[in-house]
Amino acid sequence: WALAKLGLPPSRIAREGPAARPDLDAPAGSGEDLPEGLAKGFDRGDRLRRVMRRFCEHLLSIPPERVKPQELSNTLWALATLGYSGAFVDHIFEVFGRRILEQPSTMERLKPQEAKDVLWAHATLGRRNDALFHALGEHLVQPNARAFIKPQEVSMALWSFATMGLPQPRLFDELGGVLLAEPRPLNHRVIANVLWALATVDHENPPLVAALTAAATNPRTLRHAGEQSVATILWAQARLAQPDRECMERLVEHLLRRGNGNGAGVAITPRGAASALWALGRAAGSAA
Question: Which top-level group of life is the source organism from (predicted)?
């Protein structure tokens, strides 16, 4: 989205080649964990890095009351998606976080998607800001926010809180209620993220867990489930006080069908197999 918004064709950026900048560094290590496009080198283009910095500097120069919440959230999302770090990025996150906290008009106008993007950006880069998370959590449980929040936004918000180790019981229960009231089937990524979040912070919500477990094994939903989502659900089930073994068995059967080429036609990876075996072993141990 950032490439298209800034009018920078990915192919052109890729040709620029990598370049190091101490104030806006490319992510360390390999690109295996980045989105496919970024792993191909888009994130390392010096031109993109310069344009991103100039764009951020422009936002900083504008009077805070004239900057839209979407511009704040989109910028943080883009920096996190590209995996950038450094002193300048630290400054951007600090200033934008402070603006959201200290300007009531900014918080009031913040849409659920934008709040989710801010939370996700902080969690993805491991940037802890308890005050900001608490304020955004309170914002998301307000009636005007709950009325418009989507399941994907719920799942990523809860994932962000769990990733940072910040359980907010009211937030988890209120947003869980949004999922329980959702009339349309939930996709497996939403189910996986929410179950993972619940298990990670040890938040008990039996009705929500039961509903998500049933949704995870719905044949129509399961048919489109990817290995990572299934492995995440298995992990979460194994961490629960009372894992649903029937659910786990059906998920493992789904993985085995994939491995035999009878499902989506994609062989199970060693990592997927290891995750499934670990989950089954832990669940069996808890029953002993």
Answer: Eukaryota
CA dihedral 161, 163, 166, 170 (to 10 degrees): 40
Q: How remote is the C-alpha of 112 from its chain's centroid?
A: 14
Alpha helical stretches, state H, 125-242: 130-140, 143-146, 151-163, 169-180, 188-200, 206-216, 219-222, 227-239
The Cβ of residue 259 has, within 10 Å, a number of other Cβ atoms equal to 16
Query: In this structure, is the dihedral angle defined by the CA atoms of residues 185, 190, 195 and 197, taken in order, positive or negative?
Result: negative
pLDDT, position 262: 52
Residue type present at position 215: A
Spatial contact of 49 and 19, defined as CB atoms under 8 Å apart: yes
How many domains does one find in the chain?
1
- The verdict on residue 92 lying in a domain is yes
Q: Give 21-60 pLDDT, tens digit per residue.
A: 334 444 444 333 333 344 344 445 677 888 888 989 999 9
Tell me if 249 is assigned to some domain.
no
Q: Are 237 and 244 in contact (CB under 8 A)?
A: yes
Q: Is residue 88 scored above 90 in pLDDT?
A: yes
